[in-house]
Write a structure and sequence with these properties.
By secondary structure, the chain is an alpha+beta fold. The protein has helices at residues 8-16, 30-33, 103-119; strands at residues 44-49, 61-66, 69-74, 80-85.
Length: 129
């Protein structure tokens, strides 16, 4: 299942019997850990990496990951996109973003990426400059 670190706090509260505040972005992992996954569990995760130039020297980017795909947008001092088919290329060696066979996948993932950015309130790229 697609889980994120922001699911930890709601999980701890849920196991402690404490109500999870509505403004928490994550979800309790209790159902997953009990092998009873909710039908509305997330199909994709969003992430934002903005520590460049830190020790890893990875350019600032945000992205979305599903079970099969990863779509990444590098935005700091470049404007570049990458798409990986994780079933066919688990080591992310072949960028498929400009491959016409994946055009519909790119469109769908970009729409979901923007939806998740709005959901998490992370829409201003200049905030991290």
């Amino acid at each position: 299942q697609m889980v994120m670190n922001l699911d930890f706090a709601p999980s701890f509260l849920d196991y402690a019997g404490v109500p999870v505040p509505k403004d928490m972005q994550g979800r309790s992992l209790k159902s997953i850990l009990n092998r009873n996954v909710a039908s509305d569990w997330r199909e994709a995760i969003y992430y934002h990496y903005y520590e460049y130039p830190a020790e890893h020297s990875v350019k600032r980017h945000y992205g979305i990951r599903t079970k099969r795909y990863k779509l990444i947008h590098f935005y700091f001092d470049i404007d570049a996109w990458e798409l990986y088919d994780l079933e066919k290329d688990p080591h992310e060696l072949v960028n498929l973003y400009d491959n016409p066979s994946y055009a519909l996948t790119v469109l769908e993932l970009r729409e979901e990426l923007e939806r998740l950015r709005r959901q998490y309130g992370d829409t201003d790229e200049k905030r991290y400059l």
